[in-house]
Amino acid sequence: MTRTADALVLCGLLVPAAQAVELKPETVQAFERYIRETEARIEPRLRSADKFLWADEDPRRIAEVRAGQIAIENRRAGDTIPVPGGLIHDWIGVVFIRGVTLAQTLALVQDYDHNQDHYKPEVLASRLVSRHGNDFVVHLRLMKKKVITVILDTDYDVRYSPVDATRCHSRAYSRRIAEVEHPGEPDEHMLPPGKDHGFLWRLNSYWRFQERDGGVYVECEAISLTRTIPAGLGWLIEPIVKSLPRESLANTLRETRAALTS
User: Fold this and answer.
1) Which residue, among 95, 141, 97, has the nearest Cα to 116 in the 3D structure?
2) What percent of the chain has pLDDT above 90?
3) Which positions ≥6 away from 6 have C-beta within 8 Å?
4) What is the rounded average pLDDT of the residues 142-158?
5) pLDDT for residue 82 is more than 70
6) Cα(35)–Cα(42) distance, integer angstroms
7) pTM to 2 decimals?
8) CA separation, residue 202 to residues 67, 87, 209 (Å)
């Protein structure tokens, strides 16, 4: 057997072992406590006239994104935040999209029936379940791929809050995340939420949009909850648990810009 084939066989043997994990109440409580603290921190920014964006805290960030880069950082200056039975990941990033308006940007990000067209390959399917004014319920099928590939069926509550003619913010809370077993096969089925591999248990995202400087700044803070890294399976679990939160955020910002400028 080749080294690649050996690795695939090992993945097949070790994934069932990695599946033996359950989301505990104390893990959920720790995540919810962190979310309350985060929202209390964010709230004054949403009312600020000159510090609406995280990017405005440092002129180097504005210069970086005006030059076409994506500024992205870990909020806690480390990879993860350990909590009982899990890990919290908190990443924030911003991109500047030149030559577009706030209205155009919101029209794109709210076009949930076509998210799969704009955010490939991570978004495999997307659907607007319902809308009432600025409140949306959204379904996304996601693919997370590193050493192994994980397919997730996810639902979100999303609320947009316009501030004025040039600013808007939103927040999205995951309401259900279910891992898909044998996707695309006749025996495809969902694992019970919270009784799975633990690659993603919760995902909240906080967006800010501001039109100025001849374009729109799109900023997002994404906070996710995953399992801990089990002893002996770090090579299998760690890449998808620790690397993907940052990569997913960077890709989302990059693909938003690409969709609006193509």
Assistant:
1) 141
2) 74
3) none
4) 91
5) yes
6) 10
7) 0.90
8) 33, 11, 23
Tell me the pLDDT tens digit for each residue of 239-256: 777 788 999 999 999 999
β-sheet bridge partners, residue 160: 170
Residue 160 contacts residue 205 (beta carbons within 8 Å): no
Mean pLDDT in residue range 38-62:
93
- Structure-derived torsion over alpha carbons of residues 228, 139, 223, 144, reported in degrees to the nearest 10: 50
Q: Is 164 helix (H, G, I), strand (E, B) or coil?
A: coil
- Which secondary-structure segment (H or E) carries 145? strand 135-145
Answer for the pair 207, 110: CB distance below 8 angstroms, yes or no. no
How many other β-carbons are positioned within 10 Å of the β-carbon of residue 76? 12
d(CA 112, CA 154): 13
Residue 169 has pLDDT above 90, yes or no: yes
Tokens 């600025």 belong to: 134
Q: Strand 215-226 vs strand 135-145: parallel, antiparallel, or unpaired?
A: unpaired
Which range, of 10-14, 28-32, 117-121, averages the lowest pLDDT? 10-14
> Is 3-261 assigned to CATH 3.30.530.20?
yes
Q: At 122, is the secondary structure helix, strand, or coil?
A: coil
Residue type, 157: D
Q: Is the peptide bond before 162 cis (omega within 30 degrees of 0)?
A: no
Q: Give CA–CA dist 213/219, Å, rounded.
A: 15
Q: Which of 222, 183, 186, 208 is nearest to 57 (CA)?
A: 208
How distant is the alpha carbon of residue 258 from its chain centre?
Answer: 18
Q: Residues 205-223: what's their mean pLDDT?
A: 98
